[in-house]
Every structure is written in structure tokens, then in C-alpha cells.
Specification:
Elements lengths: L30 H15 L3 E7 L5 E7 L3 E8 L3 E5 L1 E2 L8 H10 L3 E7 L5 E7 L3 E7 L5 E5 L5 E4 L3 E3 L2 E3 L20 H8 L7 H9 L5 H5 L14 H20 L5 E5 L2 E6 L4 H4 L4 E4 L3 H58 L1 H13 L4 H9 L8 E4 L4 E6 L2 E6 L4 H44 L2 E2 L10 E4 L5 E4 L3 H11 L5 E4 L7 E5 L7 H16 L2 H8 L4 H8 L4 H28 L5 H11 L1 H9 L3 H5 L1
Antiparallel strand pairs: 1-2, 2-3, 3-4, 5-19, 6-7, 7-8, 8-9, 9-10, 11-12, 13-14, 13-15, 16-17, 17-18, 20-21, 21-23, 22-23
Helix pairs in contact: 8-11, 13-14, 14-16, 16-17
């Protein structure tokens, strides 16, 4: 299967060719594509159990399924857009939404018995059964919805409530399907299809195909090749109508026969559109086609990236908005700090010149006349006349204190004016602190948003676990898979379910030892690989750091590291720390065994240790020496 760059840039195209060259993203599945998807997924979903329901952002739902023979799978549903089984990793929220909790209440633990489509309407129905029977309806048109019905057809849980498109959505009432659903192209005959297609002469060809037969883009262009999709149905001649009907029947035949080759159309290396089978209308435009084995895989790749791209764009917009707010708050903070400093400075200047300021205030109040007359009198005073710049009115005057302009209220004393400035400085200082706190919160949120949309943008492919990963396993030098049980239950499961002809079975002659099989795959397993597997069996038999250290010391460094990886973390650490000391200890025990057993002198025993390797060490571990080695 061909794939494309995960950082997807999607071109868009106006349907029906009304504006050549203008592009827009196709964000929904057509009726016949939903029919194909239901048919593909039926075998997988039938009999699957719903383990969990997750509600992601932008009303994307992920249903975690338990599929017989396939393990865990995830069904992604985006109302109004798409649904598909995914191979990608979708990050789940920590807390479920109230809507999600409602769906979990009814659906978790139930079995999917059937998946079907309502005619060729863009509605998917999942029949789920348990103690009671439910129908989960996924509406993939308009803004979409997810509705759960009980056995009586009444709504028990739903995503969106209210009146939508003339239909009412509310718990406890019966669900109503859309009126005038399109004729099922797959089930209808030529006469029915022709009669329905031509039933409304005022409709354009494009609208007639969508509304009457459930056929959307890009199949409209394929069927209308040589015709203007904006042409009215009533303007067709008999021959033209027959030509269009023959093309419709050709599409029907391909769907019924399963003659499908899903393709993604690419323009300049960028995905543009897709279809369930190759379209000549797309090839004629020079678009390159990338084939997929299954339509679901195409939908998964296309819509996963489309959804995540939308999330990124939303994230970028949110980041831009937050950045603007942060910048505004920073400017505001700067203003607050500046005003606070200016007011404090003015207050300080008044207190520094408090006697002169009081003298000016008293003089201004005592002089009769207009502000201009008062200023003339004050100017004649040798000292205070130099600090008065302007008398603005009967209440305010501007002073020059150490070169700075300070406005004072002549109805108040100098200290009262200073106090007023101090209060203003205090007020704006408090505002500045609040602004700083707000900026820190916004910056933290901004960082989270940046992290979120960057993380969401590139989808990762989920790695499916192999059957042997529930056990302990390794690979021999020649590539044979070695699998060992973890406990008595897994030992039994390993042999009964997974052992086949040509596999090699190993088991130490000790109670509780691990069952080990070498998967031959129809080939004869070499003696060297059997010995390596026996080493693994010896290590796993005791799971004791000293025993493991000795056995592993008999392997090449690379293979020893592989076997070491099978052990628990605590045991691995113990093996590494004890290895040198224990090898010396057990060497001595092996020698002692040889001497006590009359097997020759010490030199012969050491030679046997070096030549026999694992066999000698395993002998001292397995035959009556546990009390010495492990006591």
C-alpha cells in the first residue's frame, strides 16, 4: 500500500467544475462510499465488544473495541464527516465529558451484532446487543449527530439536542429518519433509477445525483463527463438521459461485484481527492493515483490528517488570539507601571517642597481676580513666583518642581495633594501586580496550546502487539522465535494454544519451571539454537540473580544482552551487580562437585567447566545444589 507524507497539505476543489482551478476540501463521505465502508467493516465489527468510549475535541469520538482474532481496535467517528477503523494513535482525554459518560453507561460491554446503512442516506447504524438491544445511529450529513435508540426506537442518549433540519432530537421521543431518502443505487433497477433521477426537471444534474441517488463528488464529474453539472435535468434529451443512466448502472455494477480499487488522487505531490475505484474524469485532469488495498485504510489516512490538521489550525488561531491578549496585557502592564511611578514621583516632589507648595496655594486663594491677574501677582514674588507655571482655573494650578510639572488642587493642602498622588500610585501598582499575574496565566496557557497543537498535528501509527508479547520471548542467533511462559497458567496456554508441529519444546526438570517453545515455522531448528533456548529456559527457571548471572556468562555478549532483556528490572540490576562475584563462586562449586563426586582433580574439573560451559553450570544449579547456591 502506498502512503504519503504525514504532514498533509490538502488541496480543495469546487464540486461540479463551476469554478475551474478554485479548490476546497472535501470533508465528508458520499452515500456510496459509506456503503463500501459498511461492507468492508462488517466482517471486522460483527461480534466485536465495545470496551470504552472516548469524547475528543471537536466532537470526535473513539470507540475502543475488542475484536475476536484481531485484539484491540479503535473506531473513530466524526459526525457530519466520517467514520473508520484506525491504525493511528488518538490521544484520549483524562476525564470523560457528560455526553461521553452517557454513551458509556449504555454501550460499554455490549456486542456489535450488525453494521448497516439507511438506504444510501449518509446514516450508519450499529446494532448493539447485551441484556437489551440498542441501535447507535451515526449521521454523517450536515453538522452530524450520534443518537442511541432503545428497542422501541426511542432516543436514550445523543450528542446534540434541539430541532435540526426540521427534526426534533430529545431524549424519550422516537427518532425520525430524514424525509425522502435517496433511492438505493445498489438495490434499484434501471427503470427505478431513471424515473427517480428525472423526477424533478428543475434540479441540476449535480443536485439530482446527490438528492435522488445519494451520489456525491467526485463521482458526479465521472457520470457527467461531457455535460455541465449545472445543467437542468429537464433540458436533457432522451438519448442524453439514457447515456447518464447507463453510466449510473456501470457504477452500480462495480459496487455490486466488489470491483473496487480505492485510490487517492494527488496533484503536485499533494492529496486532492479520493474514490472507491479509479475515475477517468480524474485521470484526464492529470492527477496521479495512489492505490490502497482497502478503502478504510484510505479513509483512515485522509481523514485522520484532515481532522488533526483542523485541530492544528484551531490551535494556531487560539495561539494567535492568546498572543494578542498577552501583548495587550504587557502594554497595559507597562502603562500601569509608568503611571504608578509618575504619581509617586509627583507626590515625592510635593513633599520635598511642601512649604513652598502650601505658600503658593495660600497666596492663590488670597489674591482676588481672574487666574491671569492672580498669576501676575504671584510672578512678582521672588521665590514662589518661579515655581508657578500656570493657574488653570479657580481650583487647579500647575507647578514646576525640580523641572517636573505637577498639578495641584488649591482647595487642598500640599500634604493632601501628595496623599492623593500616593493613593493613585498605590492603585496603579496594584493593577500592575494583577496584570503580571494575568500575563503569567496567559503565558502558561499559551505554552500548553502550542504544545497541544504541535503534538496533535502528526498522527502516529499504533503498533499492534504480537501474540507472543503476553509471554517472555526472544530470538535465537538464526532468527527462531523463543517463547516462555510466565506462570503455570501461561505455561499451559502457551503449549495448548500456540505449540504447533515442528516446534521444539523445552522444560527444566524442576517443579514450576518455565515451558519454553522454539517456533520452527516448518523448519528444523539447529542444535545451536536449541542450546540458546535452553539457556533462556535455565535463566527463567529460577529468576534468581546469581543463577541468571552464571548462565548468561556462558553466552556471547550480544545474545546475553537479549536474554537479559527478558528479565524483570530488579532482576536485571541484581544480575549485573552480582555477575563477577557469582561466577567465581559457582566456579568453585562446580570444582567442588567434580572433586566430591570423584570426577578427577581440580584441573580436570576446571577444564570441564570451560569445555562443557552451560551444561556443567546448569548441572550444579539443577541437581540438588539449590540449598548451597541460593541459601
Amino acid at each position: 500500500m502506498l502512503t504519503f507524507n504525514p504532514i498533509l497539505r490538502l488541496k480543495t476543489r469546487v464540486i461540479g467544475g463551476s469554478s475551474p482551478g478554485e479548490l476546497r476540501v472535501r470533508k465528508e463521505l458520499s452515500g456510496i462510499e459509506i456503503w463500501v465502508l459498511c461492507r468492508e467493516l462488517s466482517e471486522v465489527l460483527r461480534g466485536a465488544y465495545i470496551d470504552k468510549v472516548y469524547h475528543l475535541r471537536d466532537d470526535v469520538f473513539v470507540f475502543k473495541l475488542r475484536v475476536k482474532g484481531a485484539g484491540k481496535r479503535e473506531l473513530v467517528i466524526k459526525p457530519g464527516m466520517c467514520f473508520f477503523l484506525t491504525k493511528h494513535v488518538w490521544e484520549k482525554p483524562e476525564k470523560p465529558s457528560p455526553v461521553c459518560m452517557g454513551f458509556r453507561k449504555y454501550l460499554c460491554g455490549l456486542k456489535i451484532e450488525e453494521i448497516s446503512q439507511y438506504g444510501l442516506e449518509r446514516i450508519v447504524k450499529l446494532k448493539v446487543v447485551g441484556k437489551e438491544e440498542y441501535a447507535l445511529l451515526i449521521e454523517l450529513f450536515g453538522k452530524g449527530n450520534i443518537v442511541l435508540l432503545n428497542g422501541e426506537g426511542k432516543i436514550v442518549q445523543l450528542l446534540k439536542q434541539g430541532k435540526i433540519g426540521g427534526r426534533e432530537f430529545k431524549r424519550g421521543i422516537k427518532y425520525t429518519y430524514p424525509k425522502h431518502p435517496p433511492v438505493n443505487l445498489v438495490e434499484g433497477g434501471a427503470e427505478l433509477i431513471k424515473r427517480e433521477f428525472l423526477s424533478d426537471p428543475k434540479l441540476t444534474l449535480a443536485k439530482a445525483l446527490v438528492r435522488k441517488l445519494g451520489i456525491g463528488p467526485p463521482y458526479i464529474d465521472e457520470i457527467c463527463m461531457g455535460f455541465n453539472p449545472s445543467r437542468k435535468v429537464g433540458d436533457l434529451s432522451e438519448e442524453e438521459a439514457d447515456l447518464l443512466i447507463s453510466r449510473l448502472m456501470s457504477v452500480r455494477e462495480r459496487l455490486v461485484k466488489g470491483d473496487l480499487k480505492p485510490v487517492l488522487y494527488v496533484d503536485g505531490g499533494e492529496p486532492l481527492d479520493y474514490s472507491v475505484f479509479p475515475l477517468k474524469s480524474m485521470e484526464d485532469k492529470g492527477y496521479k493515483a495512489r492505490e490502497y488495498g482497502r478503502f478504510n485504510d484510505l479513509v483512515d489516512d485522509y481523514f485522520t490528517r484532515l481532522i488533526l490538521r483542523g485541530w492544528r489550525e484551531e490551535g494556531e488561531k487560539e495561539v494567535s488570539k492568546l498572543a494578542v491578549v498577552v501583548e495587550k496585557q504587557r502594554r497595559l502592564l507597562s502603562q500601569y507601571v509608568k503611571v504608578a511611578e509618575e504619581n509617586k514621583k509627583k507626590a515625592d516632589l510635593i513633599m520635598t517642597h511642601i512649604n513652598e507648595v502650601d505658600e503658593v496655594i495660600n497666596l492663590v486663594k488670597s489674591v482676588k481676580g481672574s487666574p491671569k491677574d492672580k498669576l501676575k501677582v504671584i510672578r512678582e514674588k521672588p521665590v514662589i513666583g518661579q515655581i508657578v507655571k500656570e493657574i488653570r482655573d479657580s481650583k487647579r494650578l500647575t507647578l514646576l518642581l525640580d523641572g517636573e510639572e505637577v498639578e495641584v488642587d488649591i482647595t487642598k493642602t500640599a500634604s493632601e495633594n501628595a496623599k492623593e498622588y500616593y493613593e493613585k500610585a498605590k492603585k496603579y501598582k496594584k493593577k500592575a501586580k494583577g496584570c503580571e499575574k494575568a500575563i503569567k496565566g496567559l503565558e502558561k496557557r499559551l505554552q500548553e496550546e502550542v504544545k497541544a497543537f504541535r503534538k496533535d498535528y502528526t498522527p502516529a501509527v499504533a503498533r499492534r502487539k504480537r501474540w507472543y508479547e503476553r509471554f517472555r520471548w526472544g530470538v535465537t542467533s538464526d532468527g527462531f522465535l523463543v517463547v516462555a511462559g510466565v506462570d503455570a497458567q501461561s505455561n499451559e496456554l502457551l503449549v495448548k494454544r500456540y505449540m504447533e508441529d515442528h516446534d521444539v519444546f523445552l522444560h527444566a526438570e524442576i517443579y514450576g519451571g518455565a515451558h519454553v517453545i522454539i517456533k520452527g515455522g516448518g523448519k528444523k531448528v539447529p542444535e545451536k539454537d536449541i542450546k540458546e533456548a535452553a539457556t533462556i529456559a535455565a535463566v527463567l527457571e529460577h529468576e534468581h540473580p546469581q543463577a541468571a548471572a552464571v548462565v548468561l556468562s556462558e553466552l556471547p555478549a550480544k545474545k546475553s544482552s537479549e536474554v537479559l532483556g527478558l528479565l524483570g528490572e530488579n532482576l536485571r540490576l541484581a544480575v549485573r551487580s552480582d555477575a563477577v562475584e557469582v561466577v567465581v563462586l559457582v566456579d568453585g562449586m562446580v570444582v567442588g562437585d567434580a572433586v566430591d563426586g570423584g570426577g578427577g582433580d581440580v584441573d580436570d574439573a576446571l577444564h570441564a567447566r570451560l569445555e562443557g560451559g552451560l551444561e556443567d553450570v546448569a548441572g550444579s544449579l539443577h541437581v540438588g545444589r539449590e540449598d548451597l547456591l541460593f541459601g
